[in-house]
Specification:
The complex is a heterodimer of chains A (about 200) and B (about 120).
Chain A (H helix, E strand, L loop, with lengths): L6 H16 L6 H22 L1 H7 L3 H13 L8 H33 L5 E5 L9 E6 L2 E6 L4 H14 L5 H10 L14
Chain B lengths: L6 H18 L2 E2 H10 L7 H13 L3 E8 L2 E9 L1 H26 L13
Antiparallel strand pairs in B: 1-3, 2-3
Helix pairs in contact in B: 1-3, 1-4, 2-3
The chains are: A mainly alpha (about 200), B alpha+beta (about 120).
């Protein structure tokens, strides 16, 4: 059954492609893009035969399909590298540190203004040991500006080190070695433009 | 109704079948699925074939090239590498050796079931 590429069909195919892509977040970007393109092309080829709806249905569970690709890339590792976990760790460290800095500043400000609601002068907050550096508050009639309070290098070490550990990023070396040792792929004709 | 095939059995020989089909002539993903269905594997899914192709490519047993398509973006055609051809020969010999043992065993007639005697 030949079908034209109607808007609904495009939506069906793109929805499947991007759902699939979302489950391949742990693949290197270039590999993920290549697989996305290939799936889209195969889906359209199938859609010309059986229609877009059936083509998408024939793919089966997209989670299973994506898991198959992940196994193909990393082997049957039960603990694969996870960019998602790494990104989540960075986000969590950032969120915790932002919250900690905010709470510390608010508490310090509350302490100053509780003592003297019309405080004027310069006050120094010692920050959080090892995590947040000193911060200087300058008050004028109870309102303040502040300078300092940066995150220490340890925070960035924790952030990146945590991402490395929780994302199991050292396992990327396995995929990298496989990529380096595989035969050169020949592209007779490359036509770009498809994302 | 088309017979269904044990997915575990099929998984074991899918790579071999793919190498064989691609050795006959290079194909892109969906075309491989169609060819498998024409062989009688009507219940095979794209979800099992596409990752198997990716695995073969990662293992260096097939290589891919992009070929411009009239109907859309360039298609990724697969064909066996030298390592793939070697794996196909070894796999075929292994399969035929196994089938030579398993097939005659499975098709030979079973002995007559023992007749039951009524308890008195």
């Amino acid at each position: 059954m030949a079908t034209s590429r109607g808007t609904l069909d495009r939506l069906r195919v793109e929805r499947a492609v991007w759902t699939f892509d979302a489950r391949l977040q742990d693949l290197p970007r270039r590999s993920r893009i290549a697989k996305r393109r290939e799936l889209r092309d195969n889906l359209w080829a199938a859609a010309e035969d059986v229609g877009a709806r059936q083509a998408v249905r024939q793919l089966g569970d997209l989670r299973v399909l994506a898991a198959g690709y992940l196994s193909a890339e990393y082997g049957e590792l039960t603990r694969r590298p996870s960019w998602g976990a790494a990104a989540l760790t960075i986000f969590l460290v950032e969120a915790v540190m932002t919250l900690l800095a905010h709470v510390g500043r608010v508490a310090f400000d509350a302490g100053i203004t509780a003592t003297d609601p019309q405080a004027t002068g310069t006050f120094r907050w010692n920050g959080v040991p090892y995590l947040i550096s000193d911060e200087t508050f300058t008050y004028l009639d109870g309102t303040h500006t502040s300078v300092g309070g940066a995150w220490t290098p340890l925070v960035y070490v924790l952030m990146l080190g945590g991402a490395f550990v929780t994302g199991r990023l050292w396992r990327l070396t396995i995929a990298w070695r496989r990529y380096q040792t595989r035969p050169v792929v020949t592209d007779d004709q490359k036509t770009g433009g498809q994302a | 109704m088309a017979p269904t095939h044990d997915p575990q059995l099929l998984k074991g020989v899918l790579s071999l079948l793919l190498l064989r089909l691609l050795a006959e002539h290079e194909s892109y993903g969906y075309e491989v699925v169609q060819r498998l269905r024409q062989l009688g594997l009507t219940d095979i899914t794209e979800g099992s074939v596409y990752p198997a192709l990716a695995r073969l490519e990662r293992e260096g047993r097939v290589e891919a090239r992009l070929v411009a398509s009239r109907s859309g973006p360039a298609r990724k055609y697969y064909r066996p590498t030298a390592a793939g051809t070697e794996a196909l020969a070894e796999g075929t010999a292994s399969w035929l050796s196994l089938a030579a043992v398993v097939h005659p065993t499975l098709v030979r007639p079973l002995p007559d079931p023992p007749t039951s005697t009524e308890d008195i």
